[in-house]
Design goal:
GO terms for molecular function: oxoglutarate dehydrogenase (succinyl-transferring) activity. Its EC number is 1.2.4.2. Residues 591-784 form the Transketolase-like pyrimidine-binding domain. By secondary structure, the chain is α/β, with parallel strands linked by helices. The chain has five domains: 1-77, no CATH class; 92-195, TPP helical domain (Helix Hairpins); 198-286 and 313-522, Rossmann fold (3-Layer(aba) Sandwich), CATH 3.40.50; 551-796, Rossmann fold, CATH 3.40.50.12470; 802-930, Rossmann fold (3-Layer(aba) Sandwich), CATH 3.40.50. Helices cover 40% and strands 13% of the residues. The chain contains 32 helices and 25 strands. The strands form five sheets. A nine-stranded mixed sheet has the order 3-9-10-8-7-4-6-5-11. Strands 15-12-16-17-19-18-23 form a seven-stranded mixed sheet. α31 (882-892) links the parallel β24 and β25 (898-904). α5 runs parallel beside α6, α8 packs across α10 (264-270) and α12 crosses α23 (662-674). The radius of gyration is 33 Å and the shape is elongated. The termini are far apart.
Length: 935
């Protein structure tokens, strides 16, 4: 329609000013279904000018903007003859208001103690409407599919039931019209009311009986014991079982859950199918435990769950007390399972994370995992996020003390996730919301949140006294019936299931507990093992393995990773690096660090194994050394030589991560606990950035095997070394990792040559053991003229835990031995050569844990006259390896020898902030280490 004709038509029909909103609503309905509007309107929209090659959504926005502009230019008020048109607009505004704000009037609080502000947008009078007009018919836009108009009274009733019942839906913050329309249709078509069969309702009741029955049984059998009861949030059990069942119906093969302690024991027994007799033994202390073990409500579990679509493998992640930290671990585990199944859409594996109301709002890792949800390196096709909202938080907090938003779930709006608030005392509404949430996730591959509004019948734990801090709430709770009682009464009243039949179900569940039988009918013995860990169990550090690599093959790989298409134009500095790599491949130059590292990856993927690297600058390398991703300077396209070695190679993935440490490291930990093969690396941009992920090191990486028997082969690269760049970009806090070392739980290595990094990375894959590897990786050594290696050194395949003296010294002349690790070795070596000293040997300890005592003793045995042993480090005395490792040093030096320290004095800061002072300190510690006769 030409602009002039459109303007004339609008003015003649009295559609201007605010009335443009009515036209927008009709036009959106028309775009979705042309027959949803009247013949007159359809004709108008059919005649609108079409733009070739532009999608419908864009057409809509163009036309909408024209409407708005014309509305501004047209008449600013409704004329006398346009009263019905104005009312029609008001009705559509009312519909829109309920979609936006209906949740604020929804019946969400089981206790009825929420005090909510009046929402004027939902009142008829706010829209110049009244109940006296309930019999008048109005066009309903997209409110009812296939229905063009309804009486105002029916419209109002539909809106109230849909948006102000037991489900409060927040979704209008989503920018995608398709997603909003989808949610509107799902909710409005059934008015947010469930319609379940007798069998389905009986199943819901049985789940509530199980949730309630287990807690009461534990409370009676083990009074006063901590169990972090689910009571009040009982509907979590039917919710989870519905999620698993429906996921299985749609082809999902695995479900991974993560949750804190609240309700965990209930989920273990009544969802995962853990035998209750085993739980009772744990309460009674009858457990044979290897390692340190962990408390009952931190334990994980795996089982199979039968669904109409086949067996679904369930995995409940082990979780420490740091509540929300398990979320990225779960999502990382899911990504590994999806990668193994070659599923990039997320259809085959479903992540479910269960949050507390205070935790989801209060802990930053939640924001990080939301932010990661659509990033290339971390997407899993959406996560179902369930909040067990007991309205108290963790101990005595009030909502106004735990967040600055109306809902604890408002954080989810950052990624436009729909949020379904649901009353936990209406289990049918809970199950309906669950179905909608799962179907949304499966359709749009995005996160979705279910806010299960409930209460906590007891205190934070069963020994707590909640009346001390929440007297009014707990007076209400004391007289409030359980969800099981309420639902059984409802089914009896509607004659679906009699009270006698309900009682029989209660007695049957109690009988299962008494007999110690599995309470989950859908439980099956595990057949859907996601991965076989047996080849990696029971191995020690010194087990033999095939570590060498054929030199001819290595040279061929070196050529392959140095090649790229001629038309792929490189930046000049990068081209120089690749020109040098071609010379290294040809044997014309010794290999530098970047070449050796990339060759390690090449050798791994060439063998069919995978390599996954993430970090804030992983593709290029923070210090401009890796360049595994080549960027075309003409069109910004990328080329990865490591992805183009052969047809049969393993996958190579490198991602520049989101700007996070704790969530991405936890994600990679989760990935490696679900995938033992290949090499998984997280690289900190600077070593000190690992500080932000300390909880992952403390509660997962260092202790996961001891607490839970969880093997993990994650490799962590932490750039470390004193180059005068100030306190925060010098130290990766080596001492913290050494303090965590015990029971052979992980490796801490400080490689000093390209050959060492090559063989260290390969060792992490080819050795039949899976334990974390912490690497103090270099910065200046990446291009140090002495830090080079030959292809032959790489092909040897050996990582040397100790490297002895490389200069030709007469062993009988050596009276002092200096031990060190990392970059300081080269400074010691150059200074000793400059001094022309022949009586000091320098020994590199390349693996600080497990400490290579026997290898070091063999090196020391070469120097019979050495009685003076020195440990030299760059770090301050209270940092680095000195305090944590000197007992190892003392145990290896010969009897009658002395051990002294050469390094910086103790300091509260990791390093000084001025280059001049750094140089002075560095020279002093080098001189101190090499000077035999001290003043």
């Amino acid at each position: 329609m030409p602009e002039g004709a459109m303007k004339a038509w609008l003015e003649s029909s009295h559609f201007s000013g605010n009335n443009a909103e009515y036209i927008e609503e009709l036009y959106e309905s028309y775009l979705e279904n042309a027959h949803s509007v009247s013949d007159e309107w359809r004709k108008v929209f059919d005649e609108l000018e079409k733009i070739d090659g532009v999608e419908v959504e864009t057409n809509h926005s163009v036309v909408r903007n024209e409407f708005r502009q014309l509305a501004k230019e047209g008449v600013k008020h409704v004329t006398v003859g346009a009263e019905s048109d104005a009312k029609q607009v008001r009705v559509l505004q009312l519909i829109n208001a309920y979609r936006f704000r209906g949740h604020q009037n929804a019946n969400l609080d089981p206790l009825g103690i929420w005090k909510r502000e009046r929402v004027r947008d939902l009142e008829l009078t706010h829209h110049d409407l009244s109940k006296s007009e309930f019999d008048k018919e109005f066009n309903v836009g997209s409110l009812a599919v296939g229905v063009e108009s309804m009486k105002l009274g029916d419209i109002y009733k539909t809106l109230e039931k849909t948006y102000c019942g037991s489900i409060g839906a927040e979704y209008m913050h989503i920018t995608s019209t398709t997603e909003k329309r989808w949610l509107q249709q799902r909710l409005e078509s059934v008015q947010s009311q469930a319609n379940f069969s007798k069998a389905e309702k009986t199943e819901i009741l049985k789940d509530l009986i199980a949730a309630d029955g287990l807690e009461k049984y534990l409370g009676a059998k083990f009074p006063g014991a901590k169990r972090f009861s689910l009571e009040g949030g009982d509907s979590l059990v039917p919710m989870l079982k519905q999620l698993i069942t429906r996921a299985g119906e749609h082809g999902t093969k695995e479900v991974v859950l993560g949750m804190a302690h609240r309700g965990r024991l209930n989920v273990l027994v009544n969802v995962m199918g853990k035998n209750p007799s085993k739980l009772f033994d744990e309460f009674a202390g009858k457990v044979d435990q290897i390692g340190s073990g962990d408390v009952k409500y931190h334990q994980g579990y795996s089982s199979d769950f039968v669904t109409p679509g086949g067996n679904v493998h369930l995995a409940l992640a082990f979780n420490p007390s740091h509540l929300e930290i398990v979320n990225p671990v779960v999502i990382g585990s899911v990504r590994a399972r999806l990668d193994r199944r070659d599923c990039d859409k997320g259809d085959l594996v479903l992540p479910i994370t269960i949050h507390g109301d205070s935790a989801i709002a209060g802990q930053g890792v939640v924001q990080e995992t939301f932010n990661m949800s659509q990033a290339r390196a971390y997407k899993v096709g959406g996560t179902i996020r369930v909040v067990v909202n007991n309205q108290v938080g963790f101990t005595t907090s009030k909502p106004e003390d735990t967040r600055s938003t109306e809902y604890c779930t408002d954080i989810a709006k950052m990624v436009q996730a729909p949020i379904l608030h649901v009353n936990g005392d209406d289990p049918e509404a809970v199950v309906l919301a669950t179905q909608v949430a799962l179907d949304y996730r499966n359709t749009f591959k995005r996160d979705v949140v279910i806010d299960l509004v409930c209460y906590r019948r007891h205190g934070h734990n069963e020994a707590d006294e909640p009346n001390a801090t929440q007297p009014l709430m707990y007076q209400k709770i004391k007289t409030h019936p359980t969800p099981r009682q309420m639902y059984a009464d409802q089914l009896d009243a509607e004659r679906t299931l009699s009270s006698a039949e309900s009682k029989e179900l209660v007695e049957y569940y109690r009988k299962l507990l008494d007999e110690g039988q599995c309470t989950v009918e859908q439980w099956r013995p595990m057949t859907e093992h996601s991965v076989d860990w047996t080849p990696f169990i029971g191995h020690d550090w010194d087990d033999e393995y095939d570590h060498k690599i054929d030199l001819t093959k290595l040279k061929s790989l070196a050529t392959d990773i140095s090649s790229y298409p001629e038309e792929h134009k490189l930046q000049s500095r990068v081209k120089k690096i690749y020109d040098d790599r071609k010379k290294m491949a040809a044997g014309e130059k010794l290999l530098d660090w970047g070449m050796a590292e990339n060759l390690a990856y090449a050798s791994i993927v060439d063998s069919g194994e995978r390599v996954r690297i993430t970090g804030q600058d992983a593709g290029r390398g923070t210090f401009f050394h890796r360049h595994s991703v080549l960027h075309n300077q003409d069109d910004a396209s990328t080329y990865l030589p490591l992805q183009n070695l052969s047809k049969d190679q393993g996958p190579f993935e490198v991602y520049d991560s989101v700007l996070s440490e704790v969530a991405v490291l936890a994600f990679e930990y989760g990935y490696t606990t679900a995938e033992p093969s290949g090499l998984t690396i997280w690289e900190a941009q600077f070593g000190d950035f690992a500080n932000g992920a300390q909880v992952v090191f403390d509660q997962f990486i260092s202790s996961g095997e001891q607490k839970w028997g969880r093997l993990c082969g994650l490799t962590i690269l932490l750039p470390h070394g004193y180059e005068g760049q100030g306190p925060e970009h010098s130290s990766a806090r080596l001492e913290r990792f050494l303090q965590l070392c015990a029971d052979h739980n992980m490796q801490v290595c400080v490689p000093s040559t390209p050959a060492q990094v090559f063989n260290m990375l390969r060792r992490q894959v080819v050795r039949p053991m899976r334990r974390p590897l912490i690497v103090m990786s270099p910065k200046s050594l990446l291009r140090h003229p002495l830090a080079v290696s030959s292809l032959e050194e790489l092909a040897d395949g050996t990582y040397h835990n100790v490297i002895g003296e490389i200069d030709e010294l007469k062993t009988k002349d050596v009276t002092r031995v200096v031990m060190c690790s990392g970059k300081v070795y080269y400074e010691l070596l150059e200074q000793r050569r400059k001094n022309d000293q022949k009586d000091v040997a320098i020994v590199r300890i390349e693996q600080l844990y497990p400490f290579p005592e026997a290898e070091l003793k063999d090196v020391f045995a070469q120097y019979p006259n050495a009685k003076d042993f020195v440990w030299c480090q760059e770090e301050p005395q209270n940092q680095g390896a000195w305090y944590c490792s000197q007992h190892h040093f003392r145990s290896t030096i010969p009897a009658g020898s002395t051990l002294t320290y050469a390094g910086r004095t103790a300091s509260a800061a990791p390093a000084c902030g001025y280059m001049s002072l750094h140089v002075k300190e560095q020279q002093a510690l080098v001189n101190d280490a090499l000077t035999i006769n001290k003043a």
